[in-house]
Amino acid sequence: MKKLLCLLAAGLAGTVLLAPVRAVDAGSGLALADKRGCLECHAIGWTLVGPSFSSVAARYRQQTGAREMLVDKVRFGGAQHWGERFNMWPQTNLSDEEVYELVDWVLEQ
């Protein structure tokens, strides 16, 4: 499902709680987003099929639990968080490490 956003994902609650928070290199985050097909639906500063990464960051960056919620959305998908037009398909092709790296990178945009 490369046509869908790679932004939001989830793991088990224990995995989420134990996952380390770390700074993500902007170049490696963008490269991973490109490699995993995220850029087919998302861009950094403008809306494509899905919301821009900078819009996602602006909406969620300061919210408690945002990282875990976004990890959950990437992993399991979600609908209507950005209106009826946007439906995020589950991104099952990502490892847990990739999901956390992508979410951390998105939140830094």
Explained architecture:
The protein has a single domain, classed as Cytochrome c-like domain (Cytochrome Bc1 Complex, Chain D, domain 2, Orthogonal Bundle). It is 43% helix and 4% strand. The relative contact order is 0.29. It is mainly alpha-helical. The protein is globular. A two-stranded antiparallel ribbon has the order 1-2. The protein has five helices and two strands. It has helices at 13-18, 26-35, 53-60, 66-76, 96-107; strands at 78-79, 87-88.
* Structural domain tally: 1
- Measured distance between first and last alpha carbons: 24 Å
Mean pLDDT: 79
Number of strands: 2
- CATH level 1 class label: Mainly Alpha
Radius of gyration: 12 Å
Question: What order do the helices and strands come in, and which of them pair?
Answer:
Layout: H1 13-18, H2 26-35, H3 53-60, H4 66-76, E1 78-79, E2 87-88, H5 96-107
Antiparallel strand pairs: 1-2
Features:
globular, two-stranded antiparallel sheet, mainly alpha, Cytochrome Bc1 Complex, Chain D, domain 2, 2 strands
Structure, briefly:
The protein has 109 residues and is mostly helical. It has five helices and two strands.
